[in-house]
Amino acid sequence: MEDAVRAFQKQRGLAEDGTCTRETWRRLVEAGFNLGDRLLYLRSPMQRGDDVAELQERLGSLGFDAGRVDGIFGPRTAEALGEFQRNMGLPSDARCGRATVAELRRLRTPEHATVAGLREREALRRRPETLLGARVAVAHFGGLGALVESVRRSLLTAGAAAVILQHPDGSHLAAQANMLDARAFLAFAADARLHGCCTAYYASYRWESPAGRRLGEELADRVPEVLSVPTLGARGMSLPLLRETRMPAVLCEVGPTAALVQNANPLATAVTDVLAQWLPGS
Asked: DSSP 3-state assignment of 257?
């Protein structure tokens, strides 16, 4: 059973601990929905599932901007759905029922090419010369206040509008970053089980954040060098922290903790340099 749980967690981009946590159970439930199984519409709490992800992928591939493919039926997905319905001559009620599903399946869609992905790639090509005015959320789950403060000060010196977020729950941090309308989100975590540095960016449902991946890879190259620890690379994951943010987001995990504490200032400088080179234009 534990091996099966680990396999599912790996496939879904979750922490692979072999335990059926609340998040793992939620993803198991979401995996049971296929497009057409239920009526999809904007509500609170938002609907989540593989059916929502397929809807977003199909809309995005047809040129309707449903946002990133995250399996969460939010306002952008509802707006894109309504626009699709208007173009197809259907009642534009932003409710995905049988008639809408039939039209979506009738149309051939290009694989993996969505409006959201193209938008991120285009933004990466329009790099600003400085960090001036860029709103950046810098977060931690607790215990790394001094480190995150060093990063904030360095970003402020470079002209960014850096804001610190702290909460033990990743979904809460994502919601705070969304309220700030940050252009980038960077979270730090210390993991005593690690000996090195790894980064994670959002990837799931055959979709990944191009901007998040680029930032994750650049940090995975630079941070270990500053901390004098091995690089453990960057990988796509679907943790709530990454899945629920509306902007490019990266989680940077480092162990041992002493490496972070002893090198806070050099790390802050390195992070600022990486963001200045990466940050997409407005």
From this structure: helix
pTM recorded for the entire structure: 0.91
For the cut 90, the answer to whether the pLDDT of residue 114 exceeds it is no
Between CA 272 and CA 131 the distance in angstroms is 9
Q: What is the rounded distance in angstroms from the CA atom of residue 60 to the CA atom of residue 135? A: 27
Which pair of structure tokens corresponds to residue 88?
Answer: 């197809």
Closest CA to 147 of 177, 194, 186, 199: 186
pLDDT over 90 percentage in the chain = 76
Q: What domains are defined for the chain?
A: 1-31 (no CATH), 33-113 (1.10.101.10), 129-278 (3.40.630.40)
CA distance 59 to 259: 45
91 pLDDT exceeds 70? Answer: yes
- Look at residue 125 and give its three-state secondary structure: helix
Structure confidence at residue 175 (pLDDT): 96
